[in-house]
């Protein structure tokens, strides 16, 4: 695989990346263009898996049956923009300079960084697979707590809520999100990764595994990993409950299932939810739900306006579940009539949900 991978990276660099950077006058910036070439190849592989494997699964065993996939189209655009554009650019313009700074300005291949797990515990240097697994555990653990903060901190929820506004959760939904939110996430994860000594190519692999796992966990399918493995790994049944619209009669039910790849964090910290039937997804808050009627640029602007309206208010810094007023001020959900938030159903009723009263009862809040 390595013998095949290296020539592919070299070809992508010489025929695509280097000419494009020269055209954009970015060639003089810090970083190795081979890394952006590698990020592009990883993105192409990820898109192929989503389109050729995950998407057909949605037709074979859907959790929800939709009359049409109108709301999923914008998410496909988000995926292509993120994977083929923003992620590789981030790796080139931000990750590599950060890596050089953390390693004391040493950028040459083969040089040893002066910090990180392999430096602090030299034993890991002789066991690279174990080291990578530890890297991933730390990466996923940090993601879990960051994700909980995205929901608990109103100004960050103002951004992250755009990801949750999707009424038709699908294999393309993972990359639907505010670019400000995405930058904050990337900086948190990259800083932690670089601090513990993750090299840029290793970080790209960590991102690939995490992103591909999230593409699968957002997939509109009704199956999971079974009773044993669902307690360890996030599957579509598990993550779908994280995206449920708030049930006004059980308003804390949606506060669950924050894991990226490992569901064990939710089990350990008491946020795991199992045994619920599939739920309708999206948000009831009309100030967020309106994202479904917007294009890409308008969605980004709407999320930023919510963020700007929250970050300058004391309420934007008080942890808790919120909705947004017409002036974008965060309003604690406890002060809102959750039964008043409704939007027209966009999906066919789920048999398992109808057993509990039908989709009409699944409205409000997030």
Structure description:
This protein is mainly α. The protein has one domain (2-361). It is 54% helix and 2% strand. The chain has 14 helices and two strands, in the order αααααααααααααββα. The protein has helices at 2-23, 33-60, 73-102, 117-120, 128-152, 154-164, 179-195, 200-217, 226-229, 236-242, 264-269, 286-289, 296-311, 351-354; strands spanning 322-324, 330-332. Strands 1-2 form a two-stranded antiparallel ribbon. A hairpin with a 5-residue loop joins β1 and β2 (330-332). The radius of gyration is 21 Å and the shape is globular. The model is unreliable at 105-112 and 347-365 (pLDDT under 50).
Mean pLDDT level: 83
**Coarse shape:** globular
Taking all Cα atoms into account, the compactness measure Rg is 21 Å
Low-confidence segments, ≥5 residues, pLDDT <50?
A: 105-112, 347-365
Largest sheet: 2 strands, antiparallel
Strand order of the largest sheet: 1-2
- Briefly note the structural class of the backbone: mainly alpha
DSSP summary: helix tally: 14
Q: In sequence order, what are the helices and strands, one letter per element?
A: HHHHHHHHHHHHHEEH
Q: Helix share of residues?
A: 40-55%
**Percent of sequence in beta strands:** under 5%
Give the terminus-to-terminus CA distance. Answer: 44 Å
How many beta-strand elements? 2
User: What is the count of structural domains?
Assistant: 1
Record keyword descriptors for this entry.
single chain, 366 residues, mainly alpha, two-stranded antiparallel sheet, 14 helices, 2% strand, disordered C terminus
């Amino acid at each position: 695989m390595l013998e095949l991978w290296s020539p592919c990276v070299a070809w992508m660099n010489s025929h695509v990346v280097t000419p494009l950077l020269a055209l954009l006058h970015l060639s003089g910036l810090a970083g190795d263009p081979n890394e952006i070439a590698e990020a592009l190849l990883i993105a192409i592989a990820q898109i192929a898996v989503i389109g050729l494997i995950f998407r057909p699964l949605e037709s074979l065993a859907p959790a929800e049956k939709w009359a049409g996939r109108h709301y999923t189209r914008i998410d496909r655009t988000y995926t292509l923009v993120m994977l083929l554009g923003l992620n590789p650019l981030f790796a080139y313009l931000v990750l590599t300079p950060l890596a050089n700074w953390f390693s004391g300005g040493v950028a040459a291949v083969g040089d040893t960084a002066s910090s990180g797990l392999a430096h602090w515990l030299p034993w890991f240097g002789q066991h690279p697979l174990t080291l990578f697994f530890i890297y991933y555990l730390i990466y996923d653990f940090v993601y879990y707590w960051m994700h909980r903060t995205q929901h608990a901190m109103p100004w960050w929820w103002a951004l992250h809520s755009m990801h949750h506004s999707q009424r038709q959760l699908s294999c393309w939904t993972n990359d639907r999100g505010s670019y400000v939110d995405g930058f904050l996430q990337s900086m948190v994860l990259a800083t932690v990764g670089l601090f513990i000594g993750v090299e840029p190519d290793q970080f790209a692999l960590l991102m690939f595994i995490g992103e591909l796992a999230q593409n699968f966990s957002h997939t509109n399918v009704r199956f999971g990993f079974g009773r044993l493995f669902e307690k360890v790994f996030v599957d579509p049944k598990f993550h779908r409950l994280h995206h449920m619209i708030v049930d006004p009669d059980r308003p804390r039910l949606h506060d669950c299932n924050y894991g990226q790849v490992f569901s064990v964090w939710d089990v350990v910290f008491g946020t795991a939810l199992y045994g619920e039937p599939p739920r309708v997804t999206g948000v009831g808050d009309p100030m967020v739900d309106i994202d479904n009627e917007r294009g890409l640029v308008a969605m980004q602007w709407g999320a930023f306006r919510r963020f700007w309206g929250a970050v300058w208010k004391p309420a934007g810094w008080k942890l808790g579940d919120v909705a947004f007023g017409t002036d974008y001020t965060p309003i604690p959900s406890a002060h809102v009539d959750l039964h008043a938030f409704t939007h027209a159903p966009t999906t066919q009723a789920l048999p398992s949900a109808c057993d509990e009263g039908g989709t009409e009862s699944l409205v409000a809040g997030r």
